[in-house]
Specification:
single chain, 4-stranded mixed sheet, about 325 residues, 13 strands, about 35% helix, alpha/beta, UDP-N-acetylmuramoyl-L-alanine:D-glutamate ligase
Length: about 325
C-alpha cells in the first residue's frame, strides 16, 4: 500500500465524535461567565473541519443524539463543509458530547460531559454502509475504541478500509475519562496502533501504551519497525520526532502567545495531512502541522480557529521560525 498516495488523494473518511463546545469571552472563568459562544467540537470533527478549511475533502462517520444539540452538530459540520452523509441519528437517552473550556492559559479549566455519549452507539452496520472506495484514506481518533458498540464497529471499519486499499491514520487521543480502565485502554489502543499506517500521539500517550512514559519513544520506534509508515511522537514545547523510512526527523515548534491549550492536536493532524496531500515533503508537512497547532492555540474556539490555507501561509511568512532542534 502506498500510504503517501492515499493521503495525496485528499479525500478522507474521518471516524469519531462531533460535539458542542461552549466557551466564555477571553480571559473569563466558567464560574464567572454570563455568556458563552457555541461552536463545533470533538476531535474527529475538528480534524475533518481543519482538512476542509485547508482545501481537502472530509466526511464524518459517527452518531449524534436525536435532539437540538445533535442537530446543531450536523448543521455545524455542514457549515464547515464536512460531508455529514454518514452521520446517523441515535434515538433514546444518548447525548452528544458537551465541552466547556476557557480562553485563558493561567488557571485554565475544561469541563467535559461524556455521559451516555451518542458517538459510542456507532454500530457495525454504520461502518459497513460506507463505500470506502470513494475515499482515499481513513482517519480516526482513539476515543472511538473506548466503549462498545463503537469499539467493535471501529475495528470493523479498519478491516473494510484496509480491504479497499485505504491507509489508516490513527490519532491516539487518549482520554482516560472515556475508558472503563487503564488496562483496557492500553491493550485496545496498542491493538489499533498495530493496525495503522500513520500514528500520531504525544509522549504521554505513547508512554501509556508502553506502560511507562520513559518507554514511549521506544514504543513509537517499535510501531514504526512493525509496519507503520509514519509515526509522529509529539513532545509539546520540545517539538516532535517523526519516524519514517528508518529515519528519525526532529522538528521544533512555532512559539506564540497562547490563549488556550485546546485544539492543538486536531489542528496538527489536519495541517500535516493536508500538507502531505498538496505535495510537501514529510518534514515540511510536520512543520506546517505545528504551525496550524500554534494558530489554533492563539485563537478562541477549536473548529472556528482552524486556519484556512491563506491563514497558514500568512503565519509562516510572518513568523520568525520554529525553535531549534
Amino acid at each position: 500500500m502506498d500510504v503517501i498516495k492515499g493521503i495525496e488523494g485528499n479525500n478522507f473518511i474521518v471516524m469519531g465524535r462531533v460535539g458542542m463546545d461552549l466557551f466564555p469571552p477571553n480571559g473569563e472563568g466558567i464560574e464567572d461567565a454570563e455568556s458563552y459562544t457555541a461552536d463545533m467540537g470533538g476531535s474527529s470533527a475538528n480534524i475533518a473541519a481543519g482538512i476542509v478549511k485547508l482545501g481537502g475533502k472530509a466526511a464524518l462517520l459517527t452518531r449524534v443524539s436525536d435532539d437540538a444539540v445533535g442537530r446543531f452538530c450536523v448543521k455545524k459540520l455542514q457549515h464547515y463543509g464536512v460531508d455529514s452523509a454518514h452521520v446517523s441519528v441515535q434515538s433514546g437517552e444518548a447525548r452528544n458530547s458537551l465541552a466547556l473550556y476557557e480562553s485563558r492559559v493561567d488557571g485554565h479549566q475544561s469541563v467535559i460531559y461524556r455521559n451516555s455519549a451518542a458517538d459510542f452507539e456507532m454500530t457495525v452496520a454504520d461502518v459497513e454502509a460506507v463505500d470506502y472506495s470513494q475515499y482515499s484514506a481513513l482517519v480516526t481518533a482513539g476515543t472511538v475504541f473506548a466503549a462498545e458498540p463503537s469499539r467493535t464497529a471501529a475495528f470493523r471499519a479498519f478491516e473494510l478500509a484496509r480491504a479497499a486499499g485505504l491507509p489508516i491514520i490513527f490519532d491516539v487521543d487518549y482520554r482516560p475519562y472515556s475508558w472503563p480502565s487503564a488496562q483496557v485502554a492500553e491493550n485496545v489502543l496498542s491493538r489499533a496502533g498495530a493496525m495503522s499506517d500513520v500514528i500520531v500521539g504525544n509522549d504521554d500517550e505513547f508512554g501509556f501504551m508502553a506502560g511507562a512514559k520513559e518507554k514511549g519513544l521506544q514504543k513509537a520506534r517499535d510501531l514504526a519497525t512493525a509496519g507503520a509508515a509514519i509515526v509522529v511522537y509529539k513532545m509539546g514545547e520540545h517539538g516532535a520526532i517523526t519516524l519514517a523510512d528508518g529515519e528519525e526527523l526532529r522538528t521544533g515548534i512555532y512559539r506564540v502567545t497562547a490563549l488556550k491549550p485546546t485544539g492543538a492536536g486536531d489542528s496538527f493532524m489536519a495541517g500535516m495531512l493536508s500538507s502531505i496531500a498538496t505535495g510537501h515533503d514529510l518534514k515540511t508537512s510536520v512543520m506546517r502541522g505545528s504551525a496550524c497547532a500554534a494558530i489554533v492555540v492563539a485563537k478562541p474556539g477549536c473548529a472556528p480557529a482552524m486556519p484556512y490555507t491563506t491563514d497558514l501561509e500568512e503565519f509562516l511568512s510572518s513568523h520568525a521560525g520554529p525553535t531549534p532542534t
